[in-house]
């Protein structure tokens, strides 16, 4: 709130002069903006010059390493997703080919073997007959 301004109980922001016309007597403390008593000027966090440089350099190195790791993680994730997609496509292709290549257990009738007779065949060749 700017200096010399007060907020009325209605929430309206007016000058102290205008508020004195609306509010009789001394302004209540809740209507005044509190004056800071022991506020130091905000200069931010300061380091001695030699510490500031080393910490800044270290911070930049950490940020660069973090960026490299993030890039590597993204590359790894993309690679994994690509490999999973290829595997899924391969599995789908194999699943589509399996019915066409499947050999049923009883796909052909057995072919009877006819042993031709040899002329002069004496049957069993064992010596006892």
Description:
This protein has 129 residues and is mainly alpha-helical. Among the domains are: 1-33, no CATH class; 47-100. The protein is 47% helix and 5% strand. It contains two helices and two strands; from the N terminus they run ββαα. The protein has helices spanning 16-22, 49-101, and strands at residues 5-7, 13-15. The chain has a two-stranded antiparallel sheet. A hairpin with a 5-residue loop joins β1 and β2 (13-15). The longest helix is centred in the middle third of the chain and has 53 residues, at 49-101. It is rod-shaped and about 145 Å long. The chain starts with a strand and ends in a 28-residue tail after the last helix.
């Amino acid at each position: 709130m700017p200096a010399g301004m007060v907020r009325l109980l209605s929430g309206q922001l007016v000058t102290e002069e205008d508020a004195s016309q609306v509010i009789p007597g001394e302004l209540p403390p809740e209507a005044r903006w509190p004056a800071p008593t022991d506020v130091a000027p905000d200069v931010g966090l300061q380091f001695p010059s030699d510490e500031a440089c080393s910490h800044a350099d270290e911070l930049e190195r950490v940020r660069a390493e973090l960026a490299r790791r993030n890039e590597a993680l993204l590359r790894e994730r993309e690679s994994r997703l690509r490999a999973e997609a290829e595997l899924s496509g391969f599995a789908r292709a194999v699943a589509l080919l399996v019915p066409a290549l499947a050999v049923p257990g009883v796909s052909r009738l057995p072919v009877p073997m006819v042993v031709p007779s040899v002329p002069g065949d004496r049957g069993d060749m064992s010596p006892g007959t």
